[in-house]
What we know:
- With 478 residues, the protein is an alpha/beta fold.
- The protein is built from 14 helices and 14 strands.
- It has helices spanning 8-24, 37-52, 55-67, 75-90, 149-154, 178-183, 185-196, 236-245, 300-319, 341-349, 380-391, 406-415, 429-432, 445-464, and strands at residues 94-117, 121-122, 125-127, 139-146, 164-167, 201-205, 231-234, 253-275, 280-290, 326-333, 355-360, 368-374, 396-397, 419-424.
- Helix 9 links the parallel strand 9 (280-290) and strand 10.
- The longest helix is centred in the middle third of the chain and has 20 residues, at 300-319.
- The structure holds zinc ion (ZN).
Amino acid sequence: MTHHMPARRALIRLLGASCLALATGQAVRAEAPSFSASDMVAAERLREAGLASGLAYELVDSLVTEVGARPAGSLNDQRAVDWALDRLRRLGFSNVRAEPVPLRAWKRGEAHAHITAPYPHPLVMTALGNSVATPKEGLHAEIAYYPDLETLKADVSERARGRIVFIDQKTERSRDARGYGRAVAARIQGTAEAAKRGAIAVAIRSIGTDRDRLAHTGSTRYAEGLSKIPALAVSVPDADLIGRLTRYGQPIKMHLALQAEGGIAAVSHNVIAEIPGSELPDEVVLIGAHLDSWDLGPGALDDGAGVGIVTAAARLMLEAGLKPRRTVRVVLFANEENGFDGAIAYADKYKSQVHQFVGESDLGAGLVYRFQSRVRPEALPLIQQIAQPLAALGIALGSNEGSPGPDAALLMRRNAWPALELSQDGSDYFDWHHTPNDTLDKIDPAKLGQNVAAWAVMSWLAAQSPVAFGPMPTAAKP
Ligand SMILES: [Zn+2]
């Protein structure tokens, strides 16, 4: 469903009604529950302070410069946890802590691939996360070309057997992550689909929207009972070449040598900081991001930006001396990229705690253009009121079928918690996502400020709401 945005007059009328009730002490009921006038004023002040705040950018700068790439389970991942604990304490948060998240780490090694026929051509490539190694001398075989994952899934022939499956799945550019959402199954499921058909390795076109000669990594999955085959992504221009070569009818052969190690026992941590609630401390407003990154770059956009945005948004409330009714909890999740171990650990540990909403900033550093919810119907009047101060940031109210970012979506599904979403413009995000090119220069500090303003307004008002956003009328599907 889609909410309609109430006219400004309607909002003034609602606020007026509740003020009148306070002033006269009468049991006058507004037609719908509403925020107090002072909470709305505080929200507007948070918005202006957020727009002027440079804290999110300072945090991303520090994280990508002082720590760098931080793949889950690595030494640098530990350094990132220490960095986050130190920053959150120094910013004045309460209950700052690191909660252990056991995981199986994966470590990249040397990797090379080239076309050997019809003529030698080096490929710009990268191993996919979780990939097994090739034998030391590498693998050499003919390519079985598929234009997309669906074609591979539909193939009942023996064409892939003994070959290197190539999936030329294209990623469409889109403002939301829709194009990526459609394409990414080729990376996640393509390996098992190729193994099922007897392939000895799988190579995919990078899941990305750029035309750069850079490969995009990301997680792939193996399936029980199927052989684990090496998996890699090639750059978009290299994929284009392979696609064109198929038109000329000669066999295309590939050699690949890839080293990697998986299943390494390691421990990472979810890093948590709070502003304790003044009236309902056991109810939690969860604003999250993930602290880990892929290893190829410093993860400025994915997800250094989100770490900066949600931390700075919560810090604005401290700076303003606000005492939220519910606890505002910043959660920096461990290992979003290669297994969601942090989100899974959090979901288990806190499953009996009431969450007012869960949300996550994890689509880079573009402007927020839409506010969406997934709350019980009784809370929708409050959602419409939260949308009012957001409108001045160029943010429109969307549907009540929002999706709150990857870790938060896992929490929402597992524990049937309500969720809020601030949709960012991700048009450029998948140009750089999971590549060495995910660097600080891609971030516009002014756009980060708009994000901080929006997260602060939304989190503050949700924490003040006279109405609980959950429980959800029906448990979400697992
Ligand atoms: Zn991310």
